[in-house]
Amino acid sequence: MTDEIFDIVDENDRVIGRRLRRDVHRDGDKHRAIHVLVFNSRGDVFLQKRSMSKDTCPGAWDSSASGHLDCGEDYDACAIREVREEIGLVLQSAPQRLFKIDAREETGWEFVWVYRCESEGPFVLHPEEIERGGWFTPAEVTQWMAKRPQDFASGLILIWKRLHAV
Predict the structure, then answer these.
(1) Please, are residues 85 and 67 in contact by the beta-carbon 8 Å criterion?
(2) Residue 113: pLDDT band by 50, 70, 90 thresholds?
(3) What pLDDT digit, counting tens, does each position of 78-91 carry?
(4) Structural domains of the chain, with CATH
């Protein structure tokens, strides 16, 4: 994982170089990521509890699937790849784009496209990435975040607030 190479980007999300993952995270270089929120037909959202071995936000609850873009990869291709790798969901096309967040401290200096799709599961969770997962109503997530924000990855808190600001 620490030998991954990321595209680094400028303030306009244009690629300006490549660096090792550990250096990007250590130095706060801007880079790219996606988050996918998977909802079921009842409107519940599937969240994952990140593995304790993750280098950022270990043990925190996070989006259904998330991850960094590989060098040269576009956002849509990454969204398809990450849901397959992390939760075993195979998509034939990119999920619905919801909004983009500019790189900032809460995202770990990542430009993030947030996606939404629908699935009933069940999912096959990647054991090195995810400790466990569960379905939650949006109201449960909102109340939980208000009471215990420390349980969540900061990026998901930002995404959730923006998702429900409409």
Answers:
(1) yes
(2) very high
(3) 999 999 999 999 99
(4) 5-163 (3.90.79.10)
